[in-house]
## 1
Amino acid sequence: MKNRYKDFTKTIKTELIKKKRSGIFSLSFAIGLLLPLIGFIVKINFHLKGEEVAKGIPVNYYFEHLTNSLSPFVFFFFPVLMIYAASKIAQIDHKNKGWHLMETLPTSKFSVYFSKYILLLTSNLIAISTLLIFTFLFVFLESLFFEIASDKLLSFPLIDFLEVGLRLFLVSLCVSALQYGLSVLISSFIWPIIIGFIAMLIPLMLSDLYIVLNWYPYQLLHHIAKYPKGNDFGYWFTYSEVLSLLYAIISLYIGYNWYRFKVFFTAFYKNKRLLKLLGVLLISGTVIHFTLKPKQQELKSKTIIKGEISSDKEVNTVIIFDIIASDTLAKIPVVNNQFRQEFTQNLNTDYYTLQFDNYTRKLLYFGQNDSVYLDYKLFGTKDKLAVKGTRVSENIQENSFRTYTSYRYYLENNLKIDDADFYMEGIYDDWHKSLKKLNAIRTVDNIIPRSDYRERQTKLLSIEFLNYWNSFKKKRQTLYPDKPYVVNDNMKKLENSVPLNDETLLSNNNYLNYILEDLIKDDHREVSESEKYFAAIEKMDEGLFKDRLLLRQLNNSLSEAELVSVRDSLIDTYLHLISKKSYKDLILTKYQDYNRLSKGASAPEFLAYDTHGKKYNLDSFKGKIVIIDYWASWCGPCKREDPFYERKALMYKNKPIQFISMNIDVKKEDWLVDINNKGKSILQLRPESIKQMNDAYAINSIPRFVLLDQEGKIINSDFVRPSSKVFDELLNTYLP
């Protein structure tokens, strides 16, 4: 054993001498240094220009810099280094016939083969260490000479850095072993590099097709950039690192024996070598199979929602309510930034709305016997909800994808309506791609959504694309009534993929639209679609379906109606058809709000004050058109409307119109701090009673713009946003 160790160390020393002029270690150092250096230069330039960035959720500044460097490092620079270094180290001996020469020396082939592999790992370690060390040094230097934003934490996360470094090194074992084996077997310098580059690019090319090769060795590095914090359960390693170790063992075993015996047949088929190879492959393959096998979280005996809140605001209550009728399921008090609720009632598995006081709302997917832990952060206008527990994969923020199809644009602009095949092929293909994307959902721990979620989302995707198809059919009938077409088999498959009686989908508006379109497909009367909808719903049997469709259609019709008499008629005719009391109550509340805030009604009185304490009410603006923007400092969409609103105020400064920003922050101090950055062309006000203001004007979401006439009467209680292209056109119709 002692002689083998001496032999191995002697061979490593020999290899170090041979590689001195190769520049591999210098290249490793340069690659590790490059990204931290670029980041440092960018930050210095940023500080010198004096640019400011809006504060957000507190993050560790060291780790933020590291994660910013990880994506380019693992997607390009680090794999390129491993590919080049493996080919270069092997090529030194291919070129000088060193492989044959070494076999004449009193050195084992094991020492020869693995000494070079150790050099490759040393090269990897230099690159990784350089990345980590210089990330730390550059951030430390930046913090010494420049003021770092208050939302950046400057405690050095040593454990997090070590975890990332170790994970990078473990995955590099696999990639280096594969590339080294290729480089030893192929005497050409360039071909192993070409093969390595192709292997490296395959995941990037397939990602556009939503094909995720989570088993693929060259894909495993990407997981570190995507999940720099690693395992969701607090462990250092994920399944990616386990796979890397297994792949490295297999690659080294095959590569070494192939090198040792020169010929593949001799290496693995003679004597008992085939049995050894099969044993290695069987054991490793079994472990790989179970490592790659997707996992699902098991249901619990109780339904529990609990969590923790981190915020620069005081959050006292978390409200959970049904998204259909806004029925409150729970009002959970927040004590010491923590909350917990155990549900005793039966809950359908569906999306529910979480409301954190009056700040923000988030959707959460859960149901009976789910135990979910929430980590919610709210700082400034930035917020983030992390979900763990039995529904972790269903609620992963990265998985809340939006489908994209160009056929929505074609339909909106009435393009190619004469070409039915174009729409049938395109809609079906985009639907199929979206299903692939759905089936690719998994967490860092290889946990996939349960079947109820996958089935539901599959139906909803089908509905979305069927609605595009229905839109095409209506437009086609209108524009080309005398031009028939044949529905192909793919579209028939899509049309038959969604049931028309699925109560689990009633919370989804796309599904309701789909059902309504199906109900009126044979109604060819020359009347409005609204009349057709109501007539079809009236004929339905009593039950949840009828109630849900009536709720949707009544709410839409009440919203669209401009006259109180029309709303009265709708309520008189259809409200009694709803059997569910909570739906009736919701419609009556909407009806009262619409009537109270309808065009021509007197605007509710308010009392507000400016930054100097001067009081204002409706009479203060008599004789002027008034537009009021309801906003808060924590509201991201409000911030995005700010510059547009400012420009409009300047544009109309010589017109008889008053632009008002009405702040509804819980804390007055947040308002005072925020308006320091606002222009003087807008009157900044704050209500004496925010609750009374919200109730009077039915403010349940912001930003909200209300337009009043010179007499203090409502023109529009939900006016278009200033960023809208039609803002000026609509506003000018009311200006003298």
## 2
Amino acid sequence: MTTSKAAVGIGAESPEHARPVHGIIARIAAAAMRAPKITLAIAAALLVVSGALGSTLTEKLSAGGFLEPDTEGSRAAAVLAEHFGLTSMQMVFTVTGPAGATGQPVIDTGRRIATELRAEHDVAGVLTPWDGTAAGAALRSTDGTIAAIIVSLHGNDNQAMNTSHRLAERFTGSDSAVTVAAGGPALAYYEVNHKATEDGSRAEMITLPLSLLLLALLLRSAVAAAIPVAAGFVAIGGTVGLLTALSTTTDVSVFAVNASAAMGLALSIDYALLIINRFREYLDDGSEQHAAILLAVQSSGRAVVFSGITLALSLLGAMFFPMGFVRSMSIAGIAVVTLSVVLALTCVPALLVLFGERVERRRNPGRPVQESRFYRIARFAQRRPILVTIVIVGSLLGLGTPMLGIRFGLPDDRVLPRDAAVHQVGDTLRERFPVQLAGTIYVAMPHVSPQQMAGVREYATAISQLPGVTGVTGTVGNYGGGAQLSAPAEAIDGPAYLAVATPLDPNTTAGKDLLGAVHALPEPTEVLVGGLAQQNADIVGGIRQAFPRALAWIVISSFLLLLLLTGSVLLPLKAVVLNSLSLSASFGALVWVFQQGHLGGFGTVTTGVTVCTIPIVLFCSTFGLSMDYEVFLLSRFKEEWQASGRTRADNDRAVAIGIARSGRVITAAAVVMVVAFSGLIASGIAVNRVLGVGMTLAILLDATVIRLFLVPAVMRLAGTWNWWAPAPLRPLLAKFQLQH
């Protein structure tokens, strides 16, 4: 019996496949299949619109968003910016000449630049070595050859970074007498933004054709390979359009663009591969092409939706963290996951309707699953379950041990390549100046009364005596070594501040100890401590506070979804534990390479800290991505288990056959994900490279060591207990269980 395109059942197939096609997923796919050309035309139109919208996206992206808005450091920064023109978004000009910082050419050029800067309405304040202040004296290099000009800028991160670029273009350059270079955090943000955008565009030009080539080899069909890549291409374009729309209501991080584009490509190809694999299986079982497409979408489409929900919920866990960078990544990730699922349920069936025959033209039906390499791997693990489990779990725990030494910090100009001018200026400031300009601790006092002045002077004197402090300046005078170095300041009835100069790096233990010592001093009035060391402390505190809630959300939501999928209590627990193992190994490797500097830090500059937001983003995204493979495998296991006699041997067979049937598509999906994330690894921005390596390592571990070896070994040890649920829960699970 043949099946027409309007059929809802299959005639020429085995009885287990002869079931009606129903449900919203099948109806969506059927609608796309009835009008495939219109479906693809709509996708193409959306792609064009997204491209037009995306042309303005670069101007709206943010390279910041690492700080929490309501912390002590942020409130101190607000006081300093509002009352004293000292903003956290600063840029630095270095002026160098043959006669050094005291030579007339450097002095004349520096004063001219300072005068013109003070006339700029986007400039909040300017500090130079020629101001006659104690703070200005620290703006000459220790060898006296370089002068620095500190410029505080008005506006948010985006406005300040654009202002810094405009000012750098205006004032930097060299002649026979003087060389002027520019750096600082605001200009670093600008360079990161534009470098990341360029890297992303270049990566897409490489990853798309490379993905096509690899898929053609893996699927043994150029047309079959083109369908997932076409979906991935639309996903990238759609991602840009979605992020452009999001940028009108919230800040969008430049890193979110790179990471979500890579994720969109990887997921779209991943989901398309799953459907194509099922489509081929139904054809091998004797189904007619159109019916095979419907059945493939009905079975694998539900796995795609389920996987997308799981990943979206994991990404939603990042919303527990208050940093704008993390929330931006979360929103962008959820948007691109949704888009990838929609493309899988519409464009992939439409493409299969048009090109399905050509997908199969040169392919012979697959061999029996028992003859596949993946079946043999699963049986190998099942024959030696204790040995396999001990070796793999021990190895993963060993790889994860460096994570115990993780230290969080904020990114600076060193995330840029070494040859970037901003990076070189930063190195000059760190290595050749008497104090760490980035390490200055600011003490903001929102209100000081005349009666509190004596206590404030004693407080400033006490700070100047702390180990590691070279001097204290501000509105209440200059102090050093426990003595007041300037005439007493006039009585203040309003805000005041102190700037604590130090040669200590704020990311070091000594720098953190100094911050603790400042906090430990008795406060004469309300005091808000700011600066990079305080911002680091605020971020670590925020992460520690939010992480338990995010972890609970991700673990509980994943557990409940897998419980509904499998009807088992043990399998969701197993999934959470194994995912945690692979993630801990990935994090340990990242700390070992990028924080501790082994293997040359993969070409990055090691600062001794891990950028604070990276573990959050990696945990939320890779936990969900790992669940992709878990959902695909469990769906297969469950199908085989339900069709069996449900004995211990049937459990082992269900696992082995499930891995054999899904192994090829999981391997192909993992390879494509590695290719997609390779664009991040090749980026010149260290943050992107760490994200790319982290995601790649987690995916490789998950798709190979975990799914092919550890899962069959652990499920062999558990036997029929894999499918156990408490008796009181069974009726409820049977009622609400998600069927595949």
## 3
Amino acid sequence: MSQDFAMMRTTAFLQTALVVDDEIQVGNDQYAAEEATLGTASLEMDYDQRASEGDEFGLDRVPGEDHSLDSMKVVESFADHGISCAVLQPRGPSPDDLGRVESLAVRSDIVVLDWLLGRSDEIKSGPGEETTSLGLVKNIVSHDIEAGNRLRLICIYTATPDLHSIVDRIGAVICDLHAYTDQVIVDHGSLSVSVDSLRILVVAKPHHSAPPDGAVCTEAELPARMIYEFCELAGVGLLPQLALAAISSIRDNAHRLLARFDRNLDSAFISHRAMTDSVGAEQFAHSLVSSEVTSLLSTVEVASAVYEAPIEARVEQLLGNLPEKRMLNKVKFGQSYRSVTLGEAREILTNGLDSNGKVRIDNADVPLRCSSTTSLFSRSEQEHEIYSESLAIDLAFGALSSLARTPEHDGKGTPAPLLRLGALLRGDDGKYLLCLQPLCDSVRLSGSVAFPLMPLSTASAESEVFDIVVGSRDSYVALSRDGVKLSDVRVASFDASSDVGMVQALWGSEDSRWRFYGSRSSSVQGGDAGAGAGNPVFEWVGDLRPEKANQIVAHLVTNLGRTGINEFEYLRRSGRK
């Protein structure tokens, strides 16, 4: 996939930017004329002298330094890329100013912050020794983590001399906030801090006194740099482009949704609610919007991100600079590789199997019995490394295709998980359970309600069949419904929430997990003592995609319909299995 195509998709996705600076100027009119109050101290003051005067890190504002920002250039340059930009100028450490910045920042695609905000060198945004800008970064990232680790690009745009120290201080804060400290990357070469879906850059203003190579960016260049960085963060690859295209299409076609949901139909919906109940009506409204969005996505060119041309380009990109010898696993389970050329690998990956399930290898049609061709992308040379690497990628994609909601992206700030068909639970004994309660029987509840839970066995992804993958990062678990009978289904009782008429999970602040707490009368026992000591407790593992949950239920029901007869053994063994 070409960088130009990815940049085009990213630019179409980005809509809003927020720039915060206390020394803005419009053209030649500077609103924060610091020269009048800061004097004319030399810009050549070295870091040792600064340290002797109390600035240990070389981060304070030096009299005479130009920290101004030409807001007109910034706004016009963002507008040239089709991005609406707001510029805020805090007047000091007032709660209103900081609250306004934070509320806008969480809704902006791009956030640009000056490092030092306000006329004093260190304006505190709370307890501790943080500058206002660092405090804002901490609050924005904390909000994003609670909301399920949303995609976030933050730029520190500053004329403060020691950019490396800024990177170190930001890195320390992100390490304190993030659960996976070892995955936080503090890169002094690119002046950035990155982890997961978060990237924070430190960029020098054009009047920086001694910027590192490549660190300076003018106001006119800033938008293009932010689009490029956002593309690198989220837009490179087939699946990110697919997701960006889908979101952009929904944004661009919002008027079509509004036209369909006419206010003149309100009376009919209210009538429906009156004849059912509030919770059922809310679920019905949700399903209407969901199906309408699905229909919308099917009518626009969202799938163009995974058409043949992008696929071929991405295959070339992933196979580029790889050795000529590629390894293809020949078996469904385990490791048994055969060597193929780079050209054959390209043919297999772009054209796939023929109608007979065969591929062209060594100028001959060979049946492809393996369950994955991901090993063709591996850069490893040892077979066991190739297998482990490709298996990890396949399991990660298996989790994406299995689960509609996951704990990794549904934290405290997201709607509480509900107990209904497709909810995956894990008891305190480590066993996995799938809720089979139909959606219609999961609403309008009161008191203690029984829920059927189907046990799922853990399976070795290397040697056993499995249907579902759960987990995140490098810790994935394969689950199988194989061999489950109706007699294995267990029943547990849960107390419905009185305000929503459904069973909701509760957030555990101590370990940041969602849990369902059963009633005392439940027949399935857990070992955790939560809301009500002695109640069985089930950790929420995720929600299956609806079609996956329905498939498992259909398999169970089909097994119930089997007719068992006592017949002549010869006929039974001769019959069709």
## 4
Amino acid sequence: MERFSRERKIYFFEEFILTDHHFPYLEFHSFAGTAVKAVRPRIPDRWSEAQRQAGLVGLVDELLELLGPKPPILWFYTPMMFPLARHVDAAAVVYDCMDELANFRFASPMLADLERELLHRADVVFTGGHSLYEAKRLLHDNIYPFPSSVDVCHFQSARKLCVTPPEQAQIPRPILGFCGVIDERLDLELTAALARQRPEWSIVFIGPEAKIRTEDLPRAPNIHYLGQKDYLSLPAYFSGWDVALMPFARNDATRFISPTKTPEYLAAGLPVVSTPITDVVRQYGDMRGVYFASDAPSLVCACEEALQLEPKRGEWLNAVDERLATLSWDDTHRRMSRLVEDVVEPAVRVPLPPVARKTPRSSWRRRRFDYVIVGAGFAGAVLAERLANESGQRVLVCDRRPHIGGNAYDFYNESGILVHKYGPHIFHTNSEAIFDYLSRFTAWRPYEAANNAELKKAAEEHLSETKDQIKKLEQVFKSIGKTASGEKCDAIEGLIKEADGVMKEAEGTALDAGLLAACQAVEHYEIVRYGALREWAKDLGHDEAHKLLSEILDQEKATNNKLTNLAVTSINKTSTRSRAA
């Protein structure tokens, strides 16, 4: 908001504060060094809920009257504020959805309904991370993800500071620290277990307590609660830490979070140990210096590994700094500002320099685009990104699917598991430029073809069994006086011939051939539909056919399980890091 205040007057309407005065009124507070003003409504403590609501609406109207006749831009961080201004004739309505507030403890039962109303009214929606974007992207046609940005220079000062605040200076090293709100989103039992298993480590918490009882916090000689600190002083505290912790619980309140502390810790030069929060894994999972753990033993191991890195210096920070260079608040403000300007009514637009706006834009209801790209696969998505970010063009991307990336699209589900919706894809390149470019948008997964004799043998045996199954299938049809469909048999024979050819050419890539054979066996199973045929034979009283189909089905299941287990074992044993996703 400080950056937006360079262009407009910014008034931050806060939650009401009760007063013993008999009339409601507004307090104005300035933020030092900025043009942002906090507006704090004071409401009589004797008023009912209905009186409070009416009083707050009146105070909003008084504020707007003071500001003049120009329609304001309404920027909402919570739907709970929407009833105070739903009647306002706004130049634009922005919904900045930073968290799934309905999942938080003590959330209002009205919140979900108010959010639906706000989404209907909003001209543009921002989300505080990719998980939240994926959860809400179908609820609005002008929605954009904005993961946490960072003031790099501010937090990088921690790498050079030599003196830590006195209250922290007396705490023994190593220090593993957490900074943020201490509430139901933290896994307190996990933190307590870490303290018990490593009493020689000091665990420091900085931040206020909220929606949690003080007596419920873990207590131990090596756990220290230092309270809330001023933003400007945080680098000084971080300078005395050895590892930064993010011990978030896996619950509804953390399902969509994208912690702002991740880039701040990294900017301070601290290795980070976190539970596997989806957005953190997605954005930083491939980065050295970021570790993940889901239980006490793995948390201890991850912290031990993190302590091996030298904090605030070392080659590992080179990649960190490159990543952080793409997460500046200035860049976030520039992108948000352009999106807001695109939806603001023309009469209240802030004039932008020619470089920033090449052509006039209409409101989002009548948006014009410089380019229309049909198809959001690799080629279309890359072309759109380059035109938008390198040339400043307005690009409309059309695809029949509700996502980009084509068949290579993947996503993290609610359990934090990476799902390849259309099957896994392998990417190969010898170009550093291409690899570096794509690394901005994806985390790479290790892959290497393996020459596994056991897997190859099992695949060959399965193919042989498949041929025998066809003969047995012919017996099934013969027993019921029918002729097998030539089309199905031809398809099965074709699959076998194809798999046979691959097996003969496999050589050093037996894993590829084995996996292919397993996939083809599944397809063969799907074509014949053993299970359906067996039930059909049972219902019609064809006992011999039912018996033969049961044998085939049992054999198919056992062999497929064997192939799957062998493939997984082979991958785990032989995979090495390479450029494949």
